[in-house]
Amino acid sequence: MTLPAAYPRRIxxxxxxxxxxxxxxTLYALATDSERPFxxxxxxxxxxxxxxxxxxxxxxxxxxxxxxxLCEEYQLPGITFNADCIHVITDGEGKPLSxxxxxxxxxxxxxxxxxxxxxFTADDESAVHVSIxxxxxxxxxxxxxxxxxxxxxxxxxxHVLVDSDYERCRSFFYPTKKPVVNINSDGxxxxxxxxxxHLAEIPFVCMRTYLPRSVLKKDALITGKRSFSEVVKxxxxxxxxxxxxxxxxxxxxKVNGLEFKWTAGTVNLAFYIWMxxxxxxxxxRLACPPDIGxxxxxxxxxxxxxxxxxxxxxxxxxxxxxxxxxAMQNGxxxxxxxxRKSRVNKELKSQLGEVLGGLLEIRSASSENFVDVxxxxxxxxxxxx
Length: 385
Fold this sequence. Notes:
The chain is an alpha/beta fold. It is built from 11 helices and 17 strands. It has 2 domains: 2-199, Rossmann fold; 238-378, no CATH class. The strands form 5 sheets. The chain has a 6-stranded mixed sheet, sandwiched between helices. Helix 4 (103-121) packs parallel to helix 5 and helix 8 (266-281) packs across helix 11 (334-360).
């Protein structure tokens, strides 16, 4: 396994409310780790509008900017962290949030944080280190859960701990190399060079493999295609099919209450419904038509399959198109069966993930093909025509 520090793109992500010092404290702890130092190539802070103002003023602005001082003092060159790296959570209308107080704000923060982490983990050349130390408790929870949902083998999560005397000093940002004496909120004199910062690495369960590819795409949560709560549902390891509802007229599928639009086209949806009717409702197992042809090279077609598929089109899609009808004229061929099966399974896993999509896919066993769900769990909605 490649160590996180060996990846070309190394990303530190933190959440912050009104105390941006957690960012410099975490960076210090990571960079000075004697056993496994991790020096990020870029840093990103997720916060509120007020949090961004505080972070910008204390970490980046002026000759006394804490981030600049830390990098110079501990010789940490080449780390990208500027105002563009501070991401402000927005409300439903795209306006920056000053604070996170209302239930709607929390939901928006969850979607924003998860989608931000999704973007960083989409790069195979990146290693992401997430700090859950800052911000409101819900922000720390969301960023930690986001890494659990989307994290990979090379990603890490941690919490930074600082002695209480230094926590109560707003001008403390990291242990200095030379003595710097200040007074904390209790009126106690403290020397920044004597501070101890501890990094507690937090193990997490990686649930990325349970998620649909559609959720891993850009802005899947921000655009409302999937909410944070829906993503959590899709990531449950003990998934099973409790209810499958198909509305052919609108090409909408609902699985365990999660609704999605079928994007693989009518021809593949019709084939999937046909497989369900034949193997779930009628209890058959279907062999793929043989890959053979006659003397002229014309491929063999299974006429019984073509006729029953035609019935599906008549019932749910107001008849076959001329093109589909022509394709079925001599029955269903090996190529048609195999191609439709592949497209159906790809769509299911893209929309529902490897686990839940895999439970609904067209399976093969001993040269027989079938959909392995209970008839009582399936609802096929007849169209209005």
